[in-house]
Design goal:
Helix 6 (144-150) runs parallel beside helix 9 (205-212), helix 9 (205-212) packs across helix 10 (214-223) and helix 17 (379-385) runs antiparallel to helix 18 (390-401). By secondary structure, this protein is α/β, with parallel strands linked by helices. The chain has helices at residues 18-28, 62-68, 81-92, 103-108, 113-119, 144-150, 154-157, 172-195, 205-212, 214-223, 258-268, 283-288, 290-301, 306-313, 326-330, 333-337, 379-385, 390-401, and strands spanning 9-13, 32-37, 72-75, 96-99, 124-129, 200-204, 240-244, 250-254, 320-322, 341-346, 350-355.
Amino acid sequence: MPGPLDGIRVVEIANYVAVPAAGTLLVDLGADVVKVEVPWGDFYRFATPRRNGYDSDFPLSANYQMDNRGKRSLALDLALPQSVEALRQLIARADILITNTLPGRLARVGLDVDALREAHPALIVARLGGFSPDGPQADDPGFDQTSFWALSGMMDQQRDPDSPPAFFRPGVGDHCAALSMSTGILAALRHRDQTGEGQIVDVNLQQVGFYIGGNDSAQALATGQPPPRHDRLAPRNPLWNHYPTSDDRWLLLVMIDSTLYWTSFCRAIARPDLLDDDRFADPKARFKYNRELVETLDATFRTKSLAAWTSALEGQKVIWAPAKTVLEAVTDEKARANGVFSTIDHPEHGSFETVAPPFRLSEYDMHGTFPAPDLNAHTREVLEEAGVDAETVELLVSVGEQ
């Protein structure tokens, strides 16, 4: 059956991750998304596994495929006035424009957002930057590792007291921002249904970082104090902590209400003797003697491998998880049974798995099985649909093929 966004036309002027990922969510919901790229292609296209450090000959950028599946590719060099005019014609037919191009750069090529909206009042423009488009850093470039991670305080906060800051994995903040952008777009479409008017949806990576780290951000704002950093060796609640196993793996306990689980936990790890230890009798005592309890649990968990603890704890009244490697996680039978992955059928490179859309609808199959388009694959058909004259079409197609 038609998707919720069937008939909605989207123009995407973006590279890398966050905005393309939002565009893919719109594709998953049924929209027609035209991805505008430079003729030499989005750099992200060429981030193959081998270039990212994998010993693999997989020929495509798996990341690009995940974040661009199902789109149409339009290759334009916006240094050419014919390209800019053709893009204006395409935007004139669109319902939504999504971009991470800096505001000043867009204006310099004649695509000022306010002017576009004045010409097309029903147009919804969703734009993303590292910072607010209304602030002093509007035209400063930003990645999720800088704006979302380092400048939100999360980089400094997410570490043990004596450890250096963690290196942030690529794309995490971007995918959070993609969800924010797609939510704003859906709200703007609903508003347009009611009023006929478009609007601007603004998302910035730093704001998303403050929101994702909101438990700490909100308390720092309210108290004027830095959030206390988790100390694995002296946690406030030793049943909300991580512990090493005999094979140098880790498991995570998350029993926030330790009173509820203390008895079943001690029995599950075959340490009923701890129930008779007055130092650990209640949450207050376990906090007072947290170092002693962590030392005890470290020694206990060091007696078995992670696999052995997995067998021992499965089915017990405890809340815990093994710290799986990424490869273990994506090959886990239970995860796969949850339908979190989908299969892309690529016309040139066969079938391969990817991450499925992050939510499901009961009345519409968001299968996420389309491949990302080849560069310049749809330039001619998209320009012809937009009503660009034949001579210009030929010129721009030829430029895109160079």
